[in-house]
Amino acid sequence: MIEKNKFENYIKAFLEQNAKINLISKNDEKFLWEKHIFDSLSIENFFNKYPCKNKIKLLDIGTGGGFPSLPIAVNYPDIEVYALDSIRKKVNAITEISQKLELKNFHPICDRAENLFIKYKKHFDIITSRAVAPLETILKYGLPMLKDEGYFIAYKSIKTDEEIAGASKVLKKFNAKVADIIPYELPLEVNFTRNLIVVRLCK
Predict the structure, then answer these.
(1) Which of 157, 178, 141 has its CA nearest to residue 39?
(2) Cα 128–190–32 angle (5° rounding)?
(3) Could you read off the pLDDT of 127-145 as tens digits, one per residue?
(4) pLDDT of 20-35, one tens digit each?
(5) 49, 52, 150, 203: most buried, per Cβ within 10 A?
């Protein structure tokens, strides 16, 4: 169950940073909860189907303004969240937000995913990516950093089938498969269906 009141301090801290640097558009500020926080927390649908018992290390590739990394860190204090982005000013902004919220489980990284292959090879239990790049591209960068028993979760819109088809060569290269597609809807007046594409390495 997603509790909006749990995010009051986060929303305040985020809007303060958004006034300094455009993490999201000004027009989108009034939909911060519906379009960004609620969307980020849709990972709850994944956890409901795939309970994770051990201490989890999660990498968010291309986190930008901290989505889904920051809402996940706030809502799941037992998950160690690593937020990766190549734009320094965005990483500085989400670092300030996490410090204001005193999040001990949030670890921002300013770098490119292709530079982390060796350091973080088979390191993460879960890798997420939201609104960053085609599935083919993010899988190419992310799968080498995923543990053998881990999950890659891509937040995608209705073009899920096209994205999966486009990623077929990369899936084959890394001996991976789409294990699940979990649909969900954002709490907006207009019907807005999105999907979590769950990818696993084949045993």
Answers:
(1) 157
(2) 50
(3) 999 988 899 999 999 999 9
(4) 999 999 988 999 999 9
(5) 150
Residue pair 113/146 in contact by the 8 Å Cβ criterion: no
Q: Is the pTM of this model over 0.85?
A: yes
Structure-derived torsion over alpha carbons of residues 26, 28, 29, 32, reported in degrees to the nearest 10 = -160
CA triple 71-76-79, angle to 5 deg: 110
Q: Which residues contact 60 (CB under 8 A, 6 or more apart)?
A: 68, 69, 72, 81, 82, 83, 84, 127, 128, 129, 130
In this structure, are residues 114 and 140 in contact, taking their beta carbons and an 8 Å threshold? no
Return the CATH class of domain 4-201.
Answer: alpha beta
The amino acid at residue 97 is I
Supply 66's token pair: 């901290």
Give the C-alpha separation, 158 to 162, whole Å. 9
Domain spans in the chain, listed from the N-terminal domain onward: 4-201
At 47, list the tokens. Answer: 């956890």
